[in-house]
User: Fold these one by one.
Assistant:
Number 1:
Amino acid sequence: QVRLVESGGGLVQPGGSLTLSCVSSERTGSLVPMGWYRQAPGEQRALVASMRSGRDPTYADSVRGRFTISRDNAKRTVTLEMRDLKPEDTAVYFCKYADFWGSGTQVTVSS
């Protein structure tokens, strides 16, 4: 059973930056997508960014150019650097690897 643990969420002002990290309890295969989803209140969980070896990262249109995903398979981690954050980025952010999910970390963008 793979366990994913996220960290780095918090409260930030509009225009600010945050970095989310996720570490897997088990080795991660580079060909298996690993990435981030988010869910705002009353909305469905949606892809934010994902990556796998041999392909360009995938980003949601709403975050492209502001968020950057990176992955270190040796350390079993995936990181999401978020900049120029907007109130509409407020959500619980979930790490996903294969069919496994983390428990989520809250990101709140508010002045």
Note: The chain is about 0% helix and 50% strand.
Number 2:
Amino acid sequence: EVQLAESGGGLVQAGGSLRLSCAASGFPFDDYAIGWFRQAPGKEREGVSCISSIDGLTSYADSVKGRFITSSDNAKNTVYLQMNSLEPEDTAVYYCTARQLLLGEALPPFVGDEYEYWGQGTQVTVSS
């Protein structure tokens, strides 16, 4: 059974930091890209970051570049999202996602429909 279990969400003041974790199981982690998406009330789902479990290549949405860092611990099948300098606009439910990388593909695009597996989400709330 495929599982993506997010943890680490919570309430933080603007300017603060949180680290989200995504523990994966049930699929060959080393062949996959792991992404983070978020969705705020009344807004469309937005891709935040992605990391390749093959070579650690990363990509970020412009809105989080320089503030968020994603990393992977392949030995633990776990991906992290370190979120710094948080802003009220970062308030959303954050979802961990996974998609098998195609031959020769660096990273998948930030398109939700491209991803095979999704976690249940974890709430991040940033107060001003």
Note: The first strand starts at residue 3 and ends at 7.
Number 3:
Amino acid sequence: EVQLVESGGGLVQAGGSLRLSCVGSGFAFHEYGTAWFRQAPGKERERVSCINSRDGATFYTDSVEGRFTISSDNAENTTTTYLQMNSLEPEDTAIYYCAVVYLLGADCRDPTIREFDAWGQGTQVTVSS
């Protein structure tokens, strides 16, 4: 069973930076995608970025393209996925979740939210104006 633990959220002024971390363990397969989602009050959860373990390919939603960078480091039994967030805007305020989905040849952009296999507990990011 995959377990995900996020950290790195906090309060930052507009224009500032934060780096989120997601430590994953217990993967049953070697091919998976790790995504960062976010959910602001009153809004639907949206996929912000994701990365494929197979080839390192990445995806960004339009609103964060050029400001956020996703990356991952693989250790023997864990994978840590980072989301470097620069030039933060008040609109980036949300709870950020990392999630994992087994891909079996697909791309991390393809699965729907419901198809993700494991979720972290979430970390709050607040950007003040």
Note: The longest strand covers residues 94-102.
